[in-house]
Amino acid sequence: MGLFDIADDIARWVEDAQEGVASLTEPTLRLGVTGLARAGKTVFITSLVANLLDRGRMAGLDAQASGRIEAAALRPGPDRETPRFDYETHRAALLAPEPSWPQSTRRISTLRVSFRTRPTGLIGGLTGPGALHLDITDYPGEWLLDLPLMSRSYAAWSAEAFAAARTPARAPLAAEWLAKAETAADAPFSEDAARTLATAFTAYLGACREAGLSGLAPGRFLLPGELEGSPALAFAPLPPGPRKGLRAELDRRYEAYKRVVVKPFFRDHFAKLDRQVVLVDLLSALDSGPAAVQDLRQALPQVLEAFRPGDRSWLAPILGKRIDRILFAATKADHIHHAQHDRLTAILRALLREAEDRAAFKGARTRAMAIAALRATTEQEIERDGRRLSCVRGRLETTGREAALYPGPLPESPAALLAAAASGAETWPDNDFRAMAFAPPRFAPKPGDGPPHIRLDRAAEFLIGDRL
Fold it and tell me: Is the CB of residue 196 less than 8 Å from the CB of residue 183?
């Protein structure tokens, strides 16, 4: 570490300490929202904020049910450098006469919701109204997968990348990149060779994402943000060998990526979080097949590896934050009948078992939950071939027409499902579940009501209820 880095770290430590002292008199709770591709981060934040401002549908939030929240409003946040989450535009897209899903997360953004609360009991009568600032940070889950790279050398990362690329699910997608990497491994450095390899590696990662796979790093290769076209992304893994020529230069670029891209993200944003939501599109993974579920199973512990879970002390803002609550939410629960929600939650918990145990051991509270931030369907029972089917009805994303569909049953046994995924099975045994894509519903909220949802109020209670 250079002298400049040390001075920079000291300056930021002083800045964080000053923020921490200020938060003792003006409480702030920083909530991170992330998830892998298509998990619904933008919709989650938009609906959460709308339902915190108009709380008619938030009966599961105890502070609302008991009357402790006097008012809530959007306020300017303290971070003038980070883009603001465009809540108004996203809400307008969902409330339009022909509603559409808002654009997905492609960069980091923040939004502040401030609450005026009425404390209860004797102390409340003495102190008067209280306040809480909720700062919501939205960032791509793909970027989160970069944080474990901080503890890995270029050689170790390359070995992991090649091992993953040679698994049955990825090998067909990685063929072009693997061939180019093997050919160029011991070649002298040229900028053209570096960019050719980086392009092939990025195309491989993109193909994996299209196939429903999850553990894809470096995340900026798929969502470059402001780095699009930058030389910072012109590197790729190479097979083991002497550190010279092309391999030596790609090693240097990998280390620069960690120093210039990954470390600032951790230091400036991620390390300041108090609570975290991880959104998981589990239904799409189940629809994609065993390989996608196994890939998700391996990616989720990597996500948790990036967190620093633990008990939150009143000195935490000064001595260093620890994320003390993590919600893992299986999204799009409205795409299946409510009778199957328990199965969806059980599968998510099985996927997270090791990760949850690790966080709990370090003192953090975790919870798995099936939610729909914006409910796009209603439920309907239909008769077919002498069977009564529990269907969901909504507008199809492809055609816009309304239909009642039966997605099929989720597996009863999470253990059997995970065993099939781990065994390398190509299809699920005895399961014909199919995920469906619905368009946003047409709705006009009543005064005081936010958008319709499933368990968003319970999610909010777990994440912020104790601080209200």
Answer: no
Please determine, for residue 408, whether its predicted confidence score (pLDDT) is greater than 80: yes
Strands 365-370 and 109-117: unpaired
User: Strand order of the sheet with strand 109-117?
Assistant: 69-75, 109-117, 130-138, 28-35, 275-280, 325-330, 365-370
Amino acid at 319: L
Q: What is the DSSP letter of 313?
A: P
- 156-170 pLDDT, tens digit per residue, is 999 999 999 998 889
CA dist 465 and 347 (Å) reads 26
Tokens of 276: 């975290």
- Tell me the β-bridge partners of 113: 74, 134
- For residue 228, what pLDDT band results from cuts at 50, 70 and 90? confident
Domains of the chain, first to last: 26-144+270-375+441-467 (3.40.50.300), 152-267 (no CATH)
Contact indicator for 302, 215 with CB cutoff of 8 Å: yes
Pairing status of strand 378-384 against strand 365-370: unpaired
Residue 399 has a pLDDT of: 87
Give 315's DSSP letter: T
Q: Are strands 387-395 and 69-75 parallel, antiparallel or unpaired?
A: unpaired
Give the separation between CA 48 and CA 457, rounded to whole angstroms. 8
Dump the DSSP string for 35-81: ESTTS-HHHHHHHHHHHHHS-TT-TTSHHHHTT-EEEEEEE--S-SS
How far is 364 from 356, CA to CA, in rounded Å? 9
**Cα 102 from Cα 41, distance rounded (Å):** 10
Strand partners, 138: 33, 109
**pTM reported for the whole predicted model:** 0.86
Question: Contact 309/446 with Cβ under 8 angstroms?
Answer: no
